[in-house]
Design a protein that fits this description.
- The protein is of the alpha+beta class.
- The protein has a single domain, classed as Nucleoside diphosphate kinase-like domain (Alpha-Beta Plaits, 2-Layer Sandwich).
- It contains seven helices and four strands.
- The protein has a four-stranded antiparallel sheet.
- It is globular, with a radius of gyration of 14 Å.
- It binds adenosine-3',5'-cyclic-monophosphate.
- Adenosine-3',5'-cyclic-monophosphate (CMP) binds near residues 59, 63, 93, 112 and 114.
- Adenosine-3',5'-cyclic-monophosphate (CMP) binds next to loops.
């Protein structure tokens, strides 16, 4: 069965352009429930660990520089089939290739400054959600306790 959660990061470029509200609005319009959220600065260690799979890529140092250049919003989004649904809504990593109406088409500046991150598999979604949020910081729509 497909997973019900994904992790998003609204990146420093989008935060500095005051796109937090418009992006969250798109997320809500798409039917996602926000079950955890935080605004803060990533330090180099956190950014490096988060993007460790890209450590050998030529863009890695620049990506870490960018991701630690200002505050980010990190959130867990819930919906049936969350990873695939959210990736469809954010569009291609390269905003010039993203479909009209997608978050990256609307708010991204470039491949690196691409407005948002979205988990790429259910397995990575689990790892990424655990990376940023403890269980007590989550308020799941699937937990009758909360809603
Ligand atoms: P994200 O979904 O956060 O996952 C890895 C990030 O690396 C990606 O979004 C982009 O911001 C960045 N990235 C991927 N490919 C390139 C590239 N070719 N040049 C620059 N940045 C890239």
């Amino acid at each position: 069965m497909a997973g019900t959660k994904t992790l998003t990061i609204i990146k420093p470029g989008a935060v500095s352009h005051e796109y937090i509200g418009p992006i969250l609005n798109k997320i809500n319009e798409a039917g996602f429930h926000i079950s955890a959220m935080r605004l803060f600065m990533l330090n180099r260690q956190q950014a490096g660990n988060f993007y460790q799979v890209h450590a050998e890529k030529p863009f890695y140092n620049s990506l870490i520089e960018f991701m630690t250049s200002g505050p980010v919003v990190v959130a867990i989004l819930e919906k049936e089939n969350a990873v695939i649904e959210y990736r469809r809504r954010i569009g291609h990593t390269d905003p010039s290739k993203a479909e009209p109406g997608t978050i990256r088409k609307m708010f991204a500046e470039s491949m690196e400054r691409n407005a948002v991150h979205g988990s790429d598999s259910d397995e990575n979604a689990e790892i990424e959600c655990d990376f940023f949020f403890s269980k007590s910081e989550r308020f799941s729509i699937f937990d009758k306790h909360h809603f």
